[in-house]
């Protein structure tokens, strides 16, 4: 017997999803707009994922379908197949992000416990209904500049549909008591709306799911109460507004940083908030001072969403993994501190290194280069890196948190993890980061100023943000290695 019952259902699901995509293609050929067929297929696939626990006895076939569709959709996007779902937004990764989201969603819910199926249902029903509603409303009430994909009207529609849907599921169906269910519905609706608003190029199909799970799973298991959730929402919003008003971050960067700050408050608590506040607060201050000094008083440039994620994305991911029970708190915390220590070391080294009276040495050619050049080191910058990593590690040791080891031993290891991340950042900046030249005799630059700029060194896809990400990943992995060896 080649196929058991689960195999037959998986094959049927595969054929059904193929028929859904084929229906979208047929409607597109008959003149239905690409935006409409894309919404139709999107809603159908998300509804299917929400229903998978009713169709299968175990999550394994769903994992297989998710991996298969992630690969197939990536190929289809690259080759511009299936106009019914790709023509409306050819730059979007949404068709890849949706099946990709199934992998962590299953790991955090169905694979952990059948009692977590309600958050899984809720996350994909929100994605199936709220996202198309926001898209439809946004197209008809355009209130944003042409370069922005999110509209205020669309966000209001998303929040309204999500709140009504979640309230009906959690309270109306009798799963949760009224106060907790209503608070959870409102909180999940607001967080998922914010995630949808700051996401770009279709990645809301991934982050909306994670946002709903990060609210509902901890609340359901009483690891988080409504008070911390409300506090996280308020403080996260205040942080985003303050960062944007102060000129530290652009709009998407401020929104993303606000979500991170709110997550620290609601999901982590003081031991997690402290290192995050020290890193973002002091590093932002130093960035402003360093750039004003190097520009002789000129205005500083706002940091972007990509920069926020490059420096804080690894730490944020670790926090989410701990909140969903995917990793032990003591291991997650050392990885969190290691990632932020590496980010702080790099930021302090870069910004305070600009103030050095001597030019730094390039690692690649071992010669003097202008201050601020990636892949270069100086005595002042190295000392600043040590202080930056120490500021994060010292805060973590003071607050203790789930370190689970003597303070001196933990402090030395985490400080080393931060410095290891800075070294990895410098090496990647020297040997991997792209360098461009416009004129044959012109200087090398890190960002191409025009389309005719020629890549003369490094990899085109590795810019400063990718280098920073390498550094924070190295910091987190080094801290985890120490934690594993220390038992």
Tell me the layout of helices and strands.
Blueprint lengths: L4 H25 L4 H22 L4 H20 L3 H4 L7 H15 L8 H24 L11 H21 L5 H21 L5 H17 L5 H20 L5 H18 L1 H25 L10 H19 L5 H25 L7 E2 L13 E2 L1 H21 L7 H25 L3 E3 L16 E4 L6 H23 L1
Antiparallel strand pairs: 1-2, 3-4
Helix pairs in contact: 1-2, 2-6, 3-5, 5-9, 6-7, 6-9, 7-8, 8-9, 8-10, 8-11, 10-11, 11-12, 11-13, 12-14, 12-15, 13-14, 13-17, 14-15, 14-16, 14-17, 15-16, 16-17
In short, what is this structure?
The protein has 487 residues and is mainly α. It contains 17 helices and four strands.
Order of helix and strand elements from N to C terminus:
HHHHHHHHHHHHHHEEHHEEH
State the separation between the terminal residues, measured CA to CA: 46 Å
Tell me the helix content.
Answer: over 70%
Q: Indicate the low-confidence ranges by residue numbers.
A: 295-299
Shape: globular
Overview of this protein structure:
The protein has 17 helices and 4 strands. It is an all-alpha fold. Helix 2 packs antiparallel against helix 6, helix 8 runs antiparallel to helix 9 and helix 8 packs parallel to helix 10. The longest helix has 25 residues.
């Amino acid at each position: 017997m080649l196929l058991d019952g689960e195999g037959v259902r998986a094959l049927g699901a595969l054929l059904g999803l193929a028929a859904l995509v084929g229906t979208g293609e047929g409607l597109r050929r008959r003149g239905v707009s690409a935006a409409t067929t894309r919404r139709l297929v999107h809603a159908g696939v998300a509804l299917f994922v929400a229903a998978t626990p009713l169709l299968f006895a175990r999550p394994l076939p769903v994992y297989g379908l998710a991996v298969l569709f992630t690969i197939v959709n990536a190929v289809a996007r690259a080759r511009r197949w299936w106009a019914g779902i790709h023509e409306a937004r050819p730059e979007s990764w949404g068709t890849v992000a949706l099946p990709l989201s199934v992998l962590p969603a299953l790991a955090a819910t169905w694979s952990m416990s059948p009692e977590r199926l309600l958050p899984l249902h809720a996350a994909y029903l929100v994605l199936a209904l709220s996202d198309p509603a926001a898209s439809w409303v946004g197209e008809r009430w355009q209130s944003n500049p042409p370069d922005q994909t999110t509209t205020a009207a669309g966000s209001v529609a998303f929040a309204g549909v999500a709140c009504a849907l979640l309230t009906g599921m959690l309270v109306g169906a009798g799963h949760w008591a009224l106060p907790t269910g209503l608070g959870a519905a409102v909180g999940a609706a607001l967080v998922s709306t914010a995630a949808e608003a700051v996401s770009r190029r279709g990645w809301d199909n991934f982050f909306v799911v994670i946002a709903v799970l990060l609210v509902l799973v901890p609340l359901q298991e009483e690891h988080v109460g409504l008070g911390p959730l409300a506090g996280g929402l308020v403080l996260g919003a205040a942080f985003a507004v303050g960062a944007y008003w102060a000129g530290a971050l652009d709009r998407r960067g401020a929104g993303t940083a606000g979500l991170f700050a709110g997550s620290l408050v609601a999901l982590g608590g003081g031991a997690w908030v402290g290192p995050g506040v020290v890193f973002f607060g002091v590093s932002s201050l130093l960035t402003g001072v360093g750039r004003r000094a190097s520009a002789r008083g000129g205005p500083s440039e706002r940091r972007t969403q990509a920069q926020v994620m490059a420096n804080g994305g690894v730490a944020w991911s670790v926090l989410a993994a701990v909140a969903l029970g995917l990793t032990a708190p003591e291991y997650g915390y050392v990885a969190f501190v290691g990632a932020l220590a590496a980010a702080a070391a790099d930021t302090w080294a870069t910004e305070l290194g600009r103030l050095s009276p001597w030019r730094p040495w390039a690692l690649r050619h071992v010669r003097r280069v202008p201050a601020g050049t990636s892949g270069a080191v100086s005595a002042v910058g190295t000392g600043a890196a040590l202080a930056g990593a120490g500021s994060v590690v010292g805060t973590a040791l003071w607050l203790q948190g789930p370190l689970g080891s003597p303070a001196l031993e933990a402090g030395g290891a985490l400080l080393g993890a931060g410095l290891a991340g800075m070294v990895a950042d410098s090496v990647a900046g020297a040997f991997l980061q792209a360098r461009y030249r416009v004129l044959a005799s012109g200087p090398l630059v890190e960002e191409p100023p025009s389309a005719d700029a020629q890549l003369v060194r490094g990899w085109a896809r590795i810019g400063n943000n990718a280098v920073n990400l390498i550094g924070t990943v190295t910091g987190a992995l080094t801290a985890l290695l120490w934690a594993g060896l220390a038992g």
